[in-house]
TrEMBL record:
Major location (coarse): membrane
PANTHER family: FERRIC ENTEROBACTIN TRANSPORT SYSTEM PERMEASE PROTEIN, TRANSPORT SYSTEM PERMEASE PROTEIN
Alphabetically ordered keywords of this record: Cell membrane, Membrane, Transmembrane, Transmembrane helix, Transport
GO biological process: siderophore-iron import into cell
Protein name, entry field: Iron ABC transporter
Organism for this UniProt entry: Polaribacter gangjinensis
InterPro entries for the chain: ABC_BtuC-like, ABC_transptr_permease_BtuC
Length: 342
């Protein structure tokens, strides 16, 4: 039986991704001609030195961040939907994002309770990513320990949701007692942002992203087997416990590092895997994983371009745009297909 050929699909998506990357770089509060953008990209000088600084130090890192965040969250969502065989599972169901938010909340809002020590003495440009990473790591450790103590995969899903609720409750208490300025700072972080990363931060982000993505290749066969149930996967000789732990670690690493560097960004991880299945009409993860990554990058570049409010100096919160984009897609899929498939 001949395998379907998806070369045209990937070629189309690759061209669209490149076009959106250049479109994203061209948008911003400062209007820069396309010829000057092209000159900077090929290493030549632009008409104004300030344009060169804007493109190299702000717009290109932001566009690359959008690609990494969009693809990482989408692949995490695909892994969670496959592991739990639940079409509404996403990268945040394990409570990793809530753990990252708790780390940032303790840093920003906890300063009111700890006499300002945390914020005034230890706050640097790296403090937010480090605090978020520590919070995500603590929840990840708890989830991994729990996963090895229970046999039912659905129990892990429920326990992850409980960890998320627990972290949210602590954040609510911290918010209640915090000062208005600190609360506003935390609120702005929770809106999500793709534009605050320097090249050094982007390099650290990229290293973790590549490590997590490389970990997916050895478990592609396990992912396809899990779609038919754990008992069927066991009959094929798939090590369920090991595969489950690897999936949890990869998802937690991707979600944790993304939340640490860009804040919580909703709906991309939930909606994009369904778009990939609809466009490629396959459940083979050798096709779905790269397809979901590319479509996720495209979706977040589109959302970021909309958030820029072209011809305006204002920028909307990226988290609001992804929710406005993702919620109608899920509703439309439910109406059109009557049922969501994994």
């Amino acid at each position: 039986m001949n395998q379907p050929n998806y070369k045209k699909h990937f070629l189309l998506l690759s061209v669209l991704l490149i076009l959106l990357f250049f479109a994203n770089i061209s948008l911003g509060s400062v209007a820069i001609p396309f010829q000057d953008i092209f000159r900077v990209l090929i290493g030549e000088n632009s008409s104004k030195e300030s344009w060169e600084i804007i493109i190299l130090n702000f717009r290109i890192p932001k566009a690359i961040t959008a690609i990494l965040v969009g693809s990482g969250l989408s692949v995490s969502g695909l892994l969670m939907q496959t592991l739990f065989r639940n079409p509404l599972a996403g990268p945040f169901v394990l409570g990793i994002s809530s753990g990252a938010s708790l780390g940032v909340a303790l840093l920003l809002l906890g300063s009111s309770l700890f006499g300002g020590f945390l914020l005034s003495e230890t706050f640097t440009h790296w403090s937010l990513p480090i605090a978020a990473s520590l919070g995500a790591f603590l929840v990840l450790s708890a989830v991994i320990i729990t996963a090895n103590s229970v046999r039912n995969t659905m129990s892990i899903l429920i326990i992850g949701l409980m960890f998320g609720s627990f972290a949210s409750a602590i954040i609510s208490v911290l918010s209640y007692f915090s000062e208005a300025t600190k609360l506003q700072q935390f609120l702005f972080w929770s809106f999500g942002s793709l534009g605050n990363l320097s090249w050094n931060e982007l390099l650290v982000f990229g290293v973790f992203y590549v490590i997590a993505m490389c970990g997916i290749f050895p478990i592609l066969k396990s992912l396809n087997s899990l779609l038919l149930g754990e008992n069927y996967a066991k009959s094929l000789g798939i090590p369920i416990q090991k595969s489950r732990n690897i999936i949890l670690i990869i998802t937690s690493l991707l979600t944790g590092v993304i939340t640490a560097f860009s804040g919580p960004i909703a709906f991309v991880g939930l909606a994009v895997p369904h778009l990939a299945r609809m466009f490629f009409t396959t459940s083979n993860h050798k096709i779905l994983v790269p397809a979901t990554a590319v479509i996720g990058a495209i979706v977040l570049l589109i959302c970021d371009s909309i958030a820029q409010l072209p011809t305006s100096e204002y920028t909307l919160p990226i988290n609001a745009i992804t929710s406005l984009f993702g919620a109608p897609i899920v509703i439309w899929l439910l109406i059109r297909k009557k049922k969501l498939f994994v």
